[in-house]
Structures are given as structure tokens and as C-alpha cells.
Amino acid sequence: MFRYTFALFFLLSFTQCSNQEVTNICDVNSDSFFEELLFRITTKDKSFHCGYQVIPPKLPACSLGYEETHFPDNWTQVKTEMEKQFALGSSGSETLTQYKTNSVAAVIGSGYPAFQGALSAPNGNVYFIPYNSPSILSVNPNSREYELKAAVPGLVDFIGGTLGPNGIIYFSPHQNNNFYSYNTNSNSLNTIGNVSLAGAAYNGGVYAPNGKIYYVPSGETTIRYFDTKTNTIGSVSTLVSGGIFANGVLTPEGKIYFIPHDATNIHILDTNTETVTIHPHSFGGGGNYISGIYTTNGRIYLIPYNASTLYYVDTKNNDNVVNAGTIPSATSSMFNGVVLSPNGKLYPVPYGYTNFISIDPTTNQIEVLMAKPGVSSYRGGAIGIRGEIYLSPHNADRFDLLDTKANGQFCDSLRLSPYWNKF
Length: 423
Prior knowledge:
The chain is mainly β and 423 residues long. Helix content is 11%, strand content 39%. The protein folds into two domains: 2-57, no CATH class; 85-415, Methylamine Dehydrogenase, Chain H. It has helices at residues 2-16, 31-42, 75-86, 104-108, 412-415; strands at residues 48-49, 52-53, 95-100, 115-120, 126-130, 135-140, 145-151, 158-163, 168-173, 178-183, 188-194, 202-207, 212-217, 224-227, 232-235, 245-250, 255-260, 267-270, 275-278, 289-294, 299-304, 309-314, 320-326, 335-340, 346-350, 355-360, 365-371, 378-383, 389-393, 399-403.
């Protein structure tokens, strides 16, 4: 705000010295010229005016709203702040903590498996997204107390969700033709549209810089979106093909990489043009991969489900696919979701796999951590205010968090950023 006040004072001072009778809008001594330039400064209009362009200083990442962190112009500041936190490292080995002794089944009352996916919200809470749970559930990372929130209409109505602007979560329709939003400020669940959909329609979504929430195709071949600026549902003209996609990953170029599950190829949606291209590399289909995540070195890591090989796509090198190693003692149905910690490591969320693991995206080192408790399974997780990962209980009948012992912390702008706060 200070920089705009200073610019306004400077230009007003100039205006007072101008010839009041000069009216040429491109005459730098005219009132019209300065009035137009002032307007562009106050509205942050970066278009050219008579050969001049207003380029305001870039704000640090933590001074941005989370709704601005995924704008391409802000990537440099975001990357700088993220890597500043990564450089602080960890204080010790990771630990798994059961932060509440309550049974999940007892808390939700009915409906199991319980949740699939978790999101952090601007009010500081983490929200677990219902799978069969009859209610949304939130956890306060300060007190670690839970609270049942709005009731949902049915079973597996949606899988995953996306935090959009103003603290509103947009659920991805799965077994329901209704599109829902949930306002974390007013605790209200709202129907925002209705479209005839194929069964198991979408898995998760991505909040793009153009203000649209793009839903990740599962049973559907149409990429649909909810435009948060016009409050309308629309669709991309090009269809996807080849089967189910499990997740979407946003890059600073405004592209969304749909991670193949039963599909064999990554499909790439350019949200600037709403065109779709298909990556030529075959990932085999057959449920090989389940999630993906973007790292600040420009890589998209594909998290294995049935496959043993860890791959990443190097978006800074012509989308080259790189073999990053092998999951130790790989089995089937291993992970579901992945979270980036302030220590710079990736933590896949164990589903059928017997252990927690970490992945260092600078070295590709895979480290096996503590055992997963019993036959518990989780689907997704979200970063709390101190960098701990709140695990979304699916078959797990307990409330657990993974403390990554990160020395750094993500400020709210980054903790909530559309790049990483998603399922």
C-alpha cells in the first residue's frame, strides 16, 4: 500500500506543476496523461499508456494473498521463500503422533471408510473431506481439537476438493450430479450447479490463475470447471482419453498436468488457452500412479500406487521423464496423496504400504521411516500451521499426524497456495 501512496503523492505533485490548459492525453505535461497513469497505478493495470507501463515492485511471497501465489508473475518470490524455509532443514527424525485418542468411527457416528483428502483453510483449520462420513470434519492445529461441520448429502458424493478464493472449498463431484461448495467462514454447504455426469466423475481439482476450478476427470472425459468470477460451470472443448486420472498438478506456467491412474499418459491442460496436449511417455495404466506434486526445482513427482518406479517430469527440460528410483519393498495400493513439508521433503501418504517414507527432491533419496500403525490407511493430508502433516483417516480409526521436524514454517500464503494445498 505504501508504494502506491508514494507514487500517488509523486504524480499529484507533478500534476500541480502541469499546464492546466494542455489536454493531449499523451502529453506528459497534461492533466489527462497523469490522471490516466494514476488510474492504472491504483487499479494495477499493467498495460501500456502512451508508451509507458506501470510495473509495481514485487511483493514478498508472504505479503501476497494465497489467491495470488499461483500467478506466474509471483513465482520468483514464492520459490525464493519456499527454498528459504527448506534451507533451515529439520531438527531431528520424523515422528508419528496420535493427537486425539477418540475413535474416528465414534466421532462421525456412521459411514466408513471416513475421509479422502484434507485441505488447510484461511481460518487456520484443517478440513477432512468426506468419503463415507456424513459430515465434514475440521481440526484446529493450535488446540488439536476436532469439530463436526456441515452434513453432506450422501456416500462418496465427491472425492477431494480445492480451496478457491475467500476460504471456499469446491468439492469434486464423484457419484453425484451436483457441484458443491463449502464456505469455511460460515460453515455452509451450497449447491453451485447440476450437470448430468458419468459415474465416478471427478477426482480432486486445481485452482488456476484465471480464477477457475478445474476438476480432474475420472469417469468423465470432459474437463469441467467452475468459474469463481462468474459463478458458472463450463467445460474445455478437448476431451481426455485413455481412462482415469487421479490428481492434477499446477505449474507456474499456468498448466495443469493430469496424473494418470488407469490412463496411460499425462494430459496437460494449458489454462491460458484451454488446450490439451498428451505427453508421449506411457506410465502403463493399471493404477500405477495415484498422485503428483510440483517442486520448486520444476519437477512433477508421480507418486506410485501399484508401480515400483518413482518418476518425475522435468518441466524445465522439455517435460523429460526421469526415473528417480525404486520404492523399497514395493507392493500394490501403496500410497494415496503426497504432502510437501517446510523441510523440503515429500511425504507420500501410506494407504496399503506398511511404512511412511520421505523423498528428497534434490537428491531423489527415498528414506523409509516409521511403520504405519496396524492396517490403518490414510488418503491425503494437509500441512498444519507448524508444518506438521494432518493425515486424512480413510480406514484408519484414529487421528494421526506426521511431525516432519521441519525447522522452517510456511506462512499462510504458501501453506494455502493452490500449488500444494490440494488433493
